[in-house]
Design brief:
Mean pLDDT: 97
Radius of gyration: 24 Å
Family: Belongs to the glycosyl hydrolase 29 family.
Shape: elongated
Number of strands: 16
Structural class: alpha/beta
Oligomer: single chain
Distance between the termini: 29 Å
Largest sheet: 7 strands, parallel
Pfam family, one: Alpha_L_fucos
Bound molecules: alpha-D-glucopyranose
Low-confidence stretches: none
Protein name: alpha-L-fucosidase
Strand content: 15-25%
EC number: 3.2.1.51
Domain Glycoside hydrolase family 29 N-terminal: 3-314
Length: 421
Amino acid sequence: MRQEWFDDARFGMFVHFGLYSGAARHEWVQNYERLTDEEYRPYFDNFDPDLFDAAALAKTAKETGMGYVVLTTKHHDGFCLWDSKLTDFTSVTAVGRDLVREYVDALRAEGIRVGLYHSVIDWHHPDFTVDWNHPRRDDENAHALNEGRDMARYREYLHGQVRELLTEYGDIDYLFFDFTYPESKDGWEGKGPQDWDAEALLALCRELQPEMLVNDRLGIPADFVTPEQYQPTAPIVRDGVPLVWEACQTLNGSWGYHRDNTDQKSPVLLVQMLVDSVSMGGNMLLNIGPDGRGAIAPRDAATLAEIGEWMRLHDRAVIGAGHAPFTPPREGVYTLRGDRLYLSLFSWPLGFVHLPGLAGKVSYARLLNDGSWLRTSVSDPDQQADLMTPAGEAEGTLTVHLPVRRPDVLMPVIELRLTGE
Ligand code: GLC
C-alpha cells in the first residue's frame, strides 16, 4: 500500500520558507498588500538565508517525533527554492544555493521521508492570468493585464517544473500541490483543474514517482485529503469509504514567518490536536515558518522541543496508531496500536476514569509516561452512586484508579493492554 508509511508516521513537519520570510508579515503579503513585482523585488534582492540549516531542520523534525517533512519548493509568489532551469527567480540565482537539494540530502541522512509542497498558483509568472486571488486584481484596468497572458504557456512551465523536481532529486515520498479555486468572484474567474491540466499533471507524478503520495488540491481526487487549520470531528468518509487525511496546522495562524503575530498555540493544545487526529484515523502536518535568515524562530523551537519531550515518552500512542472502535470517556480520546489502547487525557479527573464497555477487555493498565501500574475495578451497576465508593456506572464499565496528582507531562496517557476477547 502506497500510503502505509504515511499512516504509520502520523506526524509531519510543514516548512514554509521563501521571500515572504524576510517580509515577515505572512506568506500572502504580496496578495494582501497588492504588491507589484517591483514592490516585491526587494525581498528577492535582499534574500539572505545564511541560517537556513537543512541538517538542523531534519534533526529538529526527528527530535519532535515527526516522520516526514514537507518543504515549499515554490509558493504563490513564484519564487523557487531549487535550481530550476525554467526561470531565474530562484534561490540559486539569488544566493547560489539549491535549498531543495540541501533539504532532501539532510532528510535522507536522518532517515526521514521527503515531502515537497508546490504551488500551482504563480503571481510572478507573466502568463499566469490575473484573477480574484492575484495581487494585481485591484489595479486600474486590471482586466487588461490579461491581454497576452497565456495559461497554456504557464501550464507548460508548471509541468516542466514539476518534472524537474521529480527527476533531479531522487525518490520523493510526498507531494502537496496548492491549490484550486474554481469559483468565480468579484467579476473574475477562479482557476480549476483544467487550468493546471490536473489529470496530466497527476499522470506525470505517477509516471515519474509511482510510489509518491499526492494530495487533493489539484482539484481532482488523489491519495489523501487536506483539512486546513481546523480539526475534523470524526473519521473522514466519502461514499462509505474512509479517506486518508492529514490536517495541516500552523503554530500561529500564518504559514510563513510572521514576526509580530503572537497567536502561538500552546504545546498542550498541539499535542491534543495531534492525538485527536490520530484518534480519527488522520495525520497532522505541523508547520514552522523559518525566519528571514532561515532559522527556526526561538518561539517555534521551544514549542517543538516541548512536543518532542512529550513524544519521547508517548510516541507509541501516535506513531503506528489509529482509530479505535470504542467510545472514549468524556475526559479524552482513544488511539489503538496492536493490542494496546491508549487513552490520552485532555483533562485530569479526580481519582478515577470510567471506561464504558471495557470491563473484562483489559488485562493491564499503566501510565505511559513512567510505566506505573494503575488499579482497575468494575463497580456494581445496580448500586446507588451516592455511597462512599464509585458505583452506578453502566454495565460493562471499567474503572481505572488514578493518582490525585496529574503526571507532570503535557498530556497524560494511559496504556491499556487488551485481552483480545
Ligand atoms: C493555503 C494557503 C497557503 C498555505 C497552504 C498550506 O492554501 O494559500 O499560504 O501554504 O494553505 O496548506
